[in-house]
Amino acid sequence: xxxxxxxxxxxxxxxxxxxxxxxxxxxxxxxxxxxxxxxxxxxxxxxxxxxxxxxxxxxxxxxxxxxxxxxxxxxxxxxxxxxxxxxxxxxxxxxxxxxxxxxxxxxxxxxxxxxxxxx
Length: 119
Ligand SMILES: [Zn+2]
Fold this sequence. Notes:
- The structure is a single chain.
- By secondary structure, the protein is an all-alpha fold.
- 63% of the residues lie in helices and 0% in strands.
- The model has no long low-confidence stretch (mean pLDDT 94).
């Protein structure tokens, strides 16, 4: 299965974790729809009392989904064999998504497992 953006991420695909990478993209689409509905509901609330609640709740939902996708991305992308988390830098901090995009495009296998194999 290819990624949402049509690019290939060999290791993520091999380990069945591509959805964790794609989640952010799907939520971005949801966010765009939620923003559209927020504007619509703000306009509608001129005619229908409290229609804005729909738009505001959708935006809140979007924020919650956003936090969830960040959690999934930085905590749940792991090597199924050794548990290595490639989304962290050497000192345990979150790596930038641009850096990780490049890393996952090239990554064929888990670097930790690879090292053990050639050990
Ligand atoms: Zn591994």
